[in-house]
Fold this sequence. Notes:
globular; two-stranded antiparallel ribbon; 6 helices; single chain
Amino acid sequence: MDEMTSSYAVPPRPECCELCGRAVDALTKHHLIPRTVHRKKRFRKRYSKEQMHTAILWLCRPCHRHIHVVLSEQAMAEQYATRAALMTHPDIAEFVTWLSAKPPGFQPSSRRPRRS
């Protein structure tokens, strides 16, 4: 069953990015438990179907991009499956703090740190 036909309710879209807090027009859905691991037995034992489909943050494009540059999908599912856990990662916390002071239309140039 794909996301569009899922019977699980996706959290409502907020007015601001759930990481940096900037009010932007275009927010994207970030699956805290990446969809690529939903079929893996280890994660099916660890998370319920509802958790896998509803653990979502609404993020601005720069925050979303930065998470995927810094973390592998495996690391996201194993260690960073909540907003609080994401904010414990030093590189993500530093980026979010820096970006939160920028105006809503600001787009940072891409920087490629190593993945964890």
